[in-house]
Please model this.
Amino acid sequence: MRNARRLVCLLTLITALLLTGCSGPTFALTGAGSNTYIQVNNASDGDAMESQPFSVGKGRVAVVESSLDQGKLRIDFTEVTIFRHENEPDEQIVGDVVASVVVGPGDKTEVALERGDYVLQITAVGDTGGKVAVILEKN
Model:
């Protein structure tokens, strides 16, 4: 009986430790067409990530719409130059930030972008959680 209690306590402790360490990634980016969706899971101030490169056509505007529950995100639209190689992985050089926005819960803003290739550099401002959509639309 004592051994069974010890076993139950040990299993409960191990399960609790595993669950606290398995909260998932801080940022998850998904894309659909010319849209990028950012899911933020309990990010701390300064947590950051960078998206994959994406192309913007002529006469486009990025609409950034926040459904954050708390905190803010700083999103930098940064130029990137991509060198494509036939038998090797693509090489990219990240350039200058051309636009930057900070969005909190319920914010919506537009960013005019020139034709070119970009990456999103995303940084949490304060403890942050929720979703943000970056949608490319015709101007």
Q: What stands out?
A: Residues 7-13, 15-22 have pLDDT under 50 and may be disordered.
